[in-house]
Amino acid sequence: MKNNIIYHLLLLLLLMATMSFASCKDDKHEMVYKSLKINSTRLFLVIGEQGTVKINSGNGYYRAQSSDANVATATVSGETVTVTTVGYGKATITVTDRIILETATFEVTVQPKSYLTCPDNRHPHPINLGLPSGTLWACRNVYASSPEDYGGYFAWGETETKWEYSWSEYTLRNNSTFTDIGSDIAGTQYDAAHVRWGGFWVMPSKEQQDELRMNCTYTWTIKNGISGGQFTGPNGGTIFLPAAGFRCNDEPKAGDHFYVGYHGIYWSSTQIPWNEYRAFYFSFNESGQYSNEEVRYIGLPVRPVSR
Ligand SMILES: [Zn+2]
Fold first, then answer.
1. How would you write the pLDDT of the chain (307 residues) with one tens digit per residue?
2. I want to staple 228 with a disulfide (CB 3.0 to 4.6 A). Which of 75, 134, 242, 263 is the partner?
3. How far apart are CA 119 and CA 115, in angstroms?
4. Distance (Å) from CA 126 to ligand 1 centroid
5. Would you state the torsion angle of the CA atoms of residues 291, 292, 297, 300, taken in this order, to the nearest 10 degrees?
6. Where do the domains of the chain lie?
7. CATH code for 37-111?
8. Which residues sit with Cβ closer than 5 angstroms to ligand 1, an ion?
């Protein structure tokens, strides 16, 4: 009899344990977590502006963090991430769902106020061509007074113009040894655009020049008596680059000023990875446009872009 009671008690305990285990399983089954989703991966903001990104799905408890508080900061309220601009440049905002510890990111680009064409004669203006990267192009060259003015000619990595463009006058090479200035000089003390104009202005990378070439309608034209290329972006924004040619006093090209009125040749900030003697440039003439490379000592104009 006693054994029988113990037996039944044990059976009851086992049954209860099984039931509670089953109900636990049911609870777990009903707890469906939503994965974190936001409605944007890129945000372009003008300095001084605020922007928002919506959280489309998640579990109601979030945190937002900026990779660079000097560019932008972010806060979350409810399902809205609010981004406040601080300075020019790019920052990545990471949104974290604090329940499931999932993250989602979006990139913020803080830019100056831009235009589709020059609004007045107070150049330079940042021109928005509607390019995928959001890069803004300046309306004129470094040391130019207007969009069709040639401006200054710079050896690659130098920030001042000079009389003679040759290896012997090139300041970044001594006794056949190059000063190490990195393979991309945008935004550095070797960037003529950044040193002369400051702020968000830098020399364009090869990638940015390629983007201009591939996304814009190109027309060889004459503006106020100066030959050059007109580049019109998908949004209707447009810039003119004069065919300023190049300067060179060294063999085999010695002769000072070449192709003026026939060729637009502009430095990029990008050195050729496999050859420290040369850097990439972007060129255009009456028959088309292309990317190429040239020895660093020749003098080319520089057309700045926004960072
Ligand atoms: Zn302008």
1. 556 666 665 555 555 554 554 444 555 556 789 999 999 999 999 999 999 999 999 999 999 999 999 999 999 999 999 999 999 989 999 999 999 999 999 999 999 999 999 999 999 999 999 999 999 999 999 999 999 999 999 999 999 999 999 999 999 999 889 999 999 999 999 999 999 999 899 999 999 999 999 999 999 999 999 999 999 999 999 999 999 999 999 766 666 888 999 999 999 999 999 999 999 999 999 999 999 999 999 999 999 999 8
2. 242
3. 7
4. 7
5. -30
6. 37-111, 126-306
7. 2.60.40.1080
8. 118, 123, 125, 139
